[in-house]
Amino acid sequence: MKANQKGFTLAESLIVLSIFVVLASVTIFSLKPENNLLEDEAFLTQLQADLFYAQNYALSHQHEVLVVFSPSQYKYNFSERTAIQPFFERKYSKKYYITEGSLLLTIKFMPNGNLNGFGTIFIRTKTKTYRLTFLIGRGRFYVTEQ
Predict the structure, then answer these.
(1) pLDDT digits (tens, 9 = 90+) for 54-81
(2) H runs (alpha helix) in the chain
(3) What would the CATH number be for the domain defined by 10-145?
(4) Closest Cα to residue 110, out of 74, 134, 84?
(5) Per-domain residue ranges for the chain?
(6) pLDDT tens, 120-134?
(7) What is the DSSP code string of 45-74?
(8) Phi, psi values for residue 12, rounded to 5°
(9) What pTM was estimated for this model as a whole?
């Protein structure tokens, strides 16, 4: 080996490696809250899309559509008023707790797309509470964070 060869010593390599590990671990731990936020957003967006589907189904088929939330089974389903079996069912994560507010956990979309009632339903996670509000007339609804 030549005496004039330059390189890194073991100590220098270990210092660089430890700095890299510290930076990588800080990045990973800072992404955890962001993941929860994205998961909540995805669930709420899916729920809104499903409710729009139920409303459009009622309009297009000219039938009443019942939306029934089953919080103990972590699912909700849609069925026509006269049908025994639901035509749509979606299970969701056990992270979400859907509870009654001023509205029961059964919603009915009429054949004209309107709701039979109005009020709120609460969606809770460990850290946040969301309010799903159904407005009077025209079947409009929205989700807000409390």
Answers:
(1) 999 999 999 999 999 999 999 999 999 7
(2) 10-61
(3) 3.55.40.10
(4) 134
(5) 10-145
(6) 999 999 889 999 999
(7) HHHHHHHHHHHHHHHHHTS-EEEEEETTTT
(8) -65, -40
(9) 0.76
